[in-house]
Amino acid sequence: MTAVHSTSNAAVSKATRTPRRGSLERFRDGTLLGVLAWAPLPFGSARPWAWDLLGAFAILLLTVSGICEAQRPSKRGALASLIPALVMAGVLAGWIVFQSLPWNLFGWHHPLWDRVSDVLGHKLDASLSLNREASFVHLFRLMTYAGYFFVAWQVARRVEGAALIVRAIAAIGALYAVYGLLEFISPQPQILWFVKDTYITDVTSTFINRNSYATFAGISMIANLVLIANVLIKNTDTRSRKSVALSMVDNLFARARWQMLGLIVISASLLMSHSRGGLIASFAGVTVLLILILVAPAARAPWRYWFGGFVGVAWLAMIVLTGTSTLSRFDSASLDLEMRPKINQALLRAIHDNFVSGTGLGSFPSIFQLYQPLSIVGYVEMAHNDYLENMLELGIPAAILLFAIVVYLASRCLMGVFRRRRDVIFPCAGAAATALVGVHSAFDFSMQIPAVAISYAVILGVGVAQSVNSRDQI
Question: pTM of this prediction?
Answer without folding.
Answer: 0.89
